[in-house]
Amino acid sequence: QRKNVIEYIDLLDLAGNLSLAMGNIEFAQKYFAEELEIMPNSSTACAGLGEVFLAQGMNDNAKVMFEWAIKNNPSNNAAIAALS
């Protein structure tokens, strides 16, 4: 596989982050959830859902998602920062 090929999961992650940045929590959740369905061990999808849950005031759910993000990728600095 070529390194410069953008995969569908990358587009989902990008769409999720853009939706989050624009304040569209519903779409962000949809994109991150779909990314997680395709790649269940996606650290970025878990962290994205953590951000979604945080924005919804669901702190316990957010904590779990950030923990899963770190479990799936111990160097996910965004998840580490969000968890602390």
Entry keywords:
single chain; 84 residues; mainly alpha; 5 helices
Question: Overview of this structure, please?
Answer:
This protein is mostly helical and 84 residues long. It is 74% helix and 0% strand. α2 (25-38) packs antiparallel against α3. The model has no long low-confidence stretch (mean pLDDT 95).
State the end-to-end CA separation.
Answer: 36 Å
User: Which H/E pattern describes the elements?
Assistant: HHHHH
Residue fraction in strands: under 5%
Arithmetic mean of pLDDT: 95
| Estimated structural class | mainly alpha
Rg on CA atoms, Å: 12 Å
Provide the helix percentage: over 70%
Uncertain segments are none
Q: Could you outline the blueprint of secondary structure elements for this entry?
A:
Layout: H1 8-21, H2 25-38, H3 43-55, H4 59-72, H5 77-83
Helix pairs in contact: 1-2, 1-3, 2-3, 3-4, 4-5
What's a quick, concise take on this entry?
The protein is an all-alpha fold and 84 residues long. Helices cover 74% and strands 0% of the residues.
